[in-house]
Amino acid sequence: MSDLPQGVSRHYVQVGQIRTHYLEAGAGNGPTVVLIHSGEFGGRAEFSWRYNIAQLGEHFHVYAPDLAGFGRTDLVYSFSDALGFRLKHIDGFLRTMCLGPVHLVGNSFGGGFCLQMATDVRFDVASVIAVSGGGKAPDNDERKVLTGYTGEREQMRDILRVCFYNERWWADDVVEERWQASLEPGVWEACAAARLAPSGQPRGFRPVRPDYGRIRCPVLIVAGAQDPLRFPTYAADLQSEIPGSEVKVFDQSRHCSHAEHPEEFNALAIDFIKRHAEEQGS
Q: What is the pTM of this model?
């Protein structure tokens, strides 16, 4: 399952000291779209965007980098400033590739990361689509499934059960691919670093909560109606914090609506990006 969709190519670029892997689709002078993947163990661009990047590439010039510490990008992590380190890396990637303004699409950790970028004056963000990213998240048993992964194959199946609604997403072949990716040298360690915490404190990503009220670009919040990793009111609560934002909730979907309902999501994303690109003249 590791073959890339038709029309999608794999590349590397040196961003400062970090050898950075990215996928690319589309070409020409259309709007630039940057996809930011989720942050589970073994997470990477080709897993998050397998069912989206080629179709988006028919309309836009699309880039999907692996963040520092994930996938085929150098597996490095900053213990002193994890978020700032990754923001600096992506800022360097966009500058190196001469990209901007950019329409951002992110899932889970990647969605929150895109919203963070939209509050940061360094980035020329034209719009954001956040899929189950940002806002408040419960510290529940389902989240502990994600943070407690120790590399056992059946634990990967449990992670996929939490993230996806339909059982086809935790079939043996999908589990095997994700499990093997999580065991590549350095992958588990780089991802586990973000989940370290002193005894008695909750493990998991502890992001700096941005001031969403500073976001001035168009935002589409996408949620799964059955997502156990977000509060039931996640989409409405986040919408209330982001001026003028839009919401789409997918039924029979958990944490990855873009993958579970790719045709509907792709059409939604294409319309949203085109609409706002035309309004901005980009």
A: 0.95
